[in-house]
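Chapter summary example.
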Amino acid sequence: MSSLALWSVIDVVLLIAGLAIYLFIVGTQLKKVAADLEESADLVWQIQKDAEAIEPGLTSINTTGRVVAGALPLLYGMGEGIVVGATFNHDEHVSEGVARPAMGVRRTRLMEAVGADVD
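The structure predicted for these 119 residues follows.
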């Protein structure tokens, strides 16, 4: 056997070994993906099962939502009517200085309980 034939056989063997390693790696990754997809499918089926229990109540929720949505323009109009009659002036209610309690400064024992010096 000549050296050219020997190197050709070595190249073919290395090519087949490389392809085998590549296919092993791809197969391993595909098995992981398949396991994740199976778990995801189980979660989707569980969500569908839970949604089927909710579905009958949706008609009631939608009916209530339509009633509330229908009442919003009326409520908005009533609110606008109330606001038009209000004449609040913020400056009249602002007092001079800081408001103090009638009994003076109140001491708390909370800081003493945690060991802080409150003098």
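To summarize the output: The helical segments are 3-85, 110-113.
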